[in-house]
Design brief:
Distance between the termini: 36 Å
Helix content: over 70%
Protein name: DMT family transporter
Domain EamA: 143-274
Pfam families: EamA
Number of helices: 11
Structural class: mainly alpha
Radius of gyration: 18 Å
Family: Belongs to the EamA transporter family.
Transmembrane segments: 38-56, 68-86, 92-112, 119-136, 142-161, 173-191, 203-221, 233-253, 259-282
Shape: globular
Number of domains: 1
Amino acid sequence: MSSSRFTLPPLPAVLLSIVSVQGGAAIAKGLFPVLGPAGTASLRIGFSALVLLLVVRPRLQQLQPAQWRSVVPYGLVLGLMNFLFYCALARIPLGLAVTLEFVGPLGLALAGSRRALDIVWVVLAGAGIALITPWRGQGLDLLGAGFALAAGACWALYIVLGRRTAAVLPGQTAVTVGMLFAALAVVPFGAASGSFSALTPHLLLLGTLLAVFSSVLPFSLEMQALRTMPTRTFSILMSLEPVAAAFSGWLLLGEELTVNQWLAVAFIVVASFGATLTTTAAQPIAGDN
């Protein structure tokens, strides 16, 4: 008997996932004035871990030592990646934060490539970063840009660790247990910042929505799409995230980008798109920003 559960076709599912992630980032940025990046990251990751634990119900006592050795560093990097991204988001526009963060997985995709055409993608990505960089000492917050690039480096490491973890654990269990360790790594920083004392029922509701839009919903949609969508197609669609972030920042947060910054977004998106077509490196898996 066929399932009556509602499912979306793969293409709308991925596009809705992208919109959901960027909408969640807009919610997060609205929480920064009250909770700061540490408190906001703690709410997102903490509630995401709680929801996933309740839904997936992983049997932690049955995990083997090799599985723990894979999933623990995966979860810690996941937490650090999200924390650094929120630190960047507190200082620079959403579109630029996602664009700079995307350099991490793009670099991983191009690492070790022997194709001459891939030099074009490296040049395009470098040109994009050059266009964003404030060469005259003003404009972009350099610390915020540094946080975004560090988050991108964590994203690349997260992909490598995620592949290793997926080889020894089912996908839902891997992400759920990983999110638990991400929470254990990040929530203490939120508590130490003192932001939890400012929590109200309204903020708790926003934190729950943040977890749903940034983690739970996109994770579910991406897993659903990947059942039938080729991984290369999935990667190409993920290359649209910087553009979606830039439009989300403009529409939801009133963040304006300069012409050079829009060109930078375009260059890095084209580089990511091209690298996806010409390399065989693994694409980002569920749980990204």
